[in-house]
């Protein structure tokens, strides 16, 4: 299929990078990149097959261009990817801090990809490790087992393998990616569930807890309320921003309780505009299981 184009006028303030930036898994992500002209590029395995989407805004109108068997699906889904179904006004600030976060986050929308598997695998790879380690594995596996993205960027971008193909990746290739057996088994086991239909039951999968569920659902279905319980950084950021001191998971849940229904939105705003802790001591080590 050749190039297919769609234009769309959101009718609301939209900060594209703030809205879609969480889908990028590191600067070398072969499935997501930014163009020098300000465009966003995604390679996706859609229900209709592989596809590439690029999005660019002139300030009022969004132009989407797509290639491959999944082109029509990507263009049809584009408004939801950019937050058309989101309702930011449902968050009612209860204090001056959150009111200021809302003001500074004008244009941030909670979009959705409607591709649960492509959000779940990177989330599993990121369990209890530093981002650089997980991003390295994601790059290796997608470049090795994905296919060239349709359209004008096949040499630089790859479409992730479909769900069933992840179960067929040999154990030695997982090792070469830097992933240890626990996360490999979690991803392999997850291939048995239709996660697209049962995205509200991800925690029944062995090795998938609340943190992984939140990471996947916030991206795939735009859930405005999931909380990243178990995250290394987020409770500290929420505490420092809302009350001026770091808290643990229980403290974060208590602080976010008044915003039930919109807790993920608060977390997203805190992640972008909240108070950053001072750095003390060395950072977490990037492990490399390829040496074991």
From TrEMBL:
The keyword Magnesium does not apply. InterPro entries: Alkylbase_DNA_Glycosylase/TA, DNA_glycosylase. SUPFAM superfamilies: DNA-glycosylase (SSF48150). The keyword DNA repair applies. Keywords: DNA damage, DNA repair. This is 3-methyladenine DNA glycosylase.
């Amino acid at each position: 299929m050749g190039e297919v184009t769609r234009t769309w006028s959101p009718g609301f303030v939209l900060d594209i990078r703030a809205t879609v930036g969480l889908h990028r898994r590191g600067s070398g992500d072969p499935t997501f990149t930014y163009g020098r002209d300000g465009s966003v590029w995604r390679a996706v395995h859609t229900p209709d097959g592989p596809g590439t989407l690029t999005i660019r805004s002139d300030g009022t109108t969004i132009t989407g261009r797509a290639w491959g068997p999944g082109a029509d699906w990507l263009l049809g889904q584009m408004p939801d990817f950019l937050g058309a179904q989101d309702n930011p006004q449902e968050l009612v600030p209860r204090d001056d801090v959150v009111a200021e976060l809302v003001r500074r986050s004008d244009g941030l929308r909670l979009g959705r990809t409607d591709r649960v598997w492509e959000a779940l695998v990177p989330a599993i790879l990121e369990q209890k490790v530093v981002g650089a380690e997980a991003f390295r594995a994601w790059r290796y596996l997608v470049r090795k087992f994905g296919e060239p993205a349709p359209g004008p960027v096949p040499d630089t971008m790859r479409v992730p393998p479909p769900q069933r193909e992840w179960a067929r990746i040999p154990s030695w290739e997982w090792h070469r990616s830097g992933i240890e057996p626990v996360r490999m088994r979690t991803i392999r086991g997850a291939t048995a569930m239709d996660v697209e239909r049962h995205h509200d039951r991800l925690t029944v999968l062995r090795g998938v807890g609340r943190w992984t569920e939140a990471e996947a659902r916030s991206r795939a279905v735009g859930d405005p309320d999931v909380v990243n319980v178990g995250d290394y950084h987020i409770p500290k950021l929420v505490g420092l921003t809302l009350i001026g001191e770091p808290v643990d998971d229980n403290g974060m849940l208590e602080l976010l309780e008044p915003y039930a229904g919109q807790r993920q939105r608060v977390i997203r705003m805190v992640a972008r505009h909240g108070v950053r802790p001072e750095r003390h001591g060395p950072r977490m080590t990037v492990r490399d299981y390829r040496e074991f």
